[in-house]
Predict the structure.
Amino acid sequence: MKKNYFLIVALSFIFSASAAHAFVGDIDNDGAVDLKDAILAIQICSGFSPADVYEEAYKVADVNEDGKIGTEEAIYTLQIISGVRMSNVISDDRMLLVLSAPSVHDTYYSSAFQLIVDFHVNYAKAVMGHDNVVVIVDADTKSHYENRLPGDVLLTADVYDIWVRDFTTLNPLNPVQFRYTWASMTQQESVEVQNSFKIFADRYEIQRDTTDLLLDGGNMVDNYAGKVVTTTRFMEDNNLTYSEAEQELKRLLNATEVAILEPDEEVLAHSDGMVMWTDENTLLVNDYSDYPDFRASVMDELETSFTDTAIIEVPVQYVSNEPGQWEGFESACGVNLNSVLTFRNIYVPVFSMPHDQQAVDIIRQNTDRNVITVNAEGVCPMGGSVRCLTWQLTGENAEKLIIAAREN
């Protein structure tokens, strides 16, 4: 959990995010796929140039990624309208990204409630058509998401916090549930939050291994192929030596190579604010050149741990919150590596900052995956962004939640 916000960031997020509302099939950018979109698609197929077509529709609303609006888009919108096609497509090459809505009853998030909802809506729309997405939302909060997202991606349930990365499961291919730490809250709150997840996961029969070892999901970055990165916080929380920590992670995560870094901040000490994988053998790391000794420590550990891995530095720009704003948490604004990696896509947070483009370009140059940017200005002052707010699932676990949302 992370704390009161300032108007400038709120306004900049609202205006910068306004151009990213459209999603697959939403040709007029009104937040829904409906008959009007079908008519527009048919008009375009007939050679007309309707005025209501969103100027970025050819990039965002394009169904089959051929760079144009045509027959496929017309058919797609008619299928959505008729209920023949669902928003999520159960497929082995799509990963499910799960978001957890803030509750209208949670006073902790009240100052940033609308910013979080706006972020969720825009992020979910960016995912749709590329991967699958489900938003867990309680009954009293659901109205804030309805009419902005399709009903078949909303799943009514009570999960007590928004930072689902930390208290759910690690590794969507071989899920493991660690014990949630209380670095960002009291121990009692930590237990309550994870218990709410356990009730939810058991209800939907989410298959997972469990361990009593303490580890936030944000402090584990893996390539889904045996290479993992954490920080020394994992050792400290569990009173383990380096060797013991390495062996535990190899055992629990089926890992073959483990790097344990000194963290770049001491509150959460998460590795997903430091590094990201773009494929099995390419690791991106923040450029710590302004801190030579720390950079040397990080690079030495990574190069020693991953001898056959390309390690590439990416620009980062740190931002400090105003005094009293989200007291006790370091801002995640400017950290582009807090990204979500799926089978075919990478979702990268951006912040309308000067270094964003260079960072995104480096990511694109070092992956075959589709790179999709997500504006995270509204949430990053709380201490996290895209990856921190995402739980990833595959296979039967993903299918169970997709179907539950459809039947909800």
